[in-house]
UniProtKB/TrEMBL annotation, chains A, B:
Residues 33-86 form the HTH cro/C1-type domain. PROSITE patterns: HTH_CROC1 (PS50943). GO terms for molecular function: DNA binding. The lineage of its organism: Bacteria, Pseudomonadati, Pseudomonadota, Gammaproteobacteria, Pseudomonadales. This is HTH cro/C1-type domain-containing protein.
């Protein structure tokens, strides 16, 4: 796996490599769920309707620090997004596909 | 959010943009958990010891299609990786930070 990433990066110019890293990191701004919902201009009520639960349940979900992957996926999908589970290692990143086809 | 990504991409040359996307997508190869473990040259037994569970429990975990985020994080960390939860929208990606500090 390490070899693959290394080869890929070796084919890029230093400038392209730098830009890639900058873009990559900027793409991944961190946000808690409730802020992400607000960024999508959605209320807890709207999301609750889409998930077929009540507003209090959405509020509770947004305060959780752990939940089932399927629960999180439903929440993200109700906002129009897709959940991706990534494992980051010193030599690269891999998308975990066990949970991809629920 | 859409504006931010658009601005960022607008500052890049078409070549850099193309390379970025190619690298980004190639970085994210998909893999199920058991293949990821093998790619790290780890056996179920080794991982079981690191997680303080038995080998059968690791085997069972690798066959699950849903689990708690904390369970998955422990598994990834035992392999020397870090779990990242990403929400992908048509206009960009956001890292979900609710689960980041367990």
């Amino acid at each position: 796996m390490a070899k693959k990433f290394a080869e890929l990066e070796a084919r890029m110019s230093p400038e392209a490599r730098e830009q890639t890293q900058a873009l990559y990191h900027q793409h991944l701004q961190e946000m808690p769920l409730h802020e992400l919902r607000k960024a999508q201009a959605l209320s807890q009520e709207t999301l609750a309707k889409a998930l077929n639960i009540n507003q209090a349940a959405v509020s509770k979900m947004e305060r959780r620090t752990d939940m089932y992957i399927s629960t999180l996926r439903n929440y993200i999908q109700a906002m129009g997004g897709e959940l991706e589970i990534i494992a980051t290692f010193p030599d690269g990143q891999v998308k975990i596909e066990n949970f991809a086809h629920k």
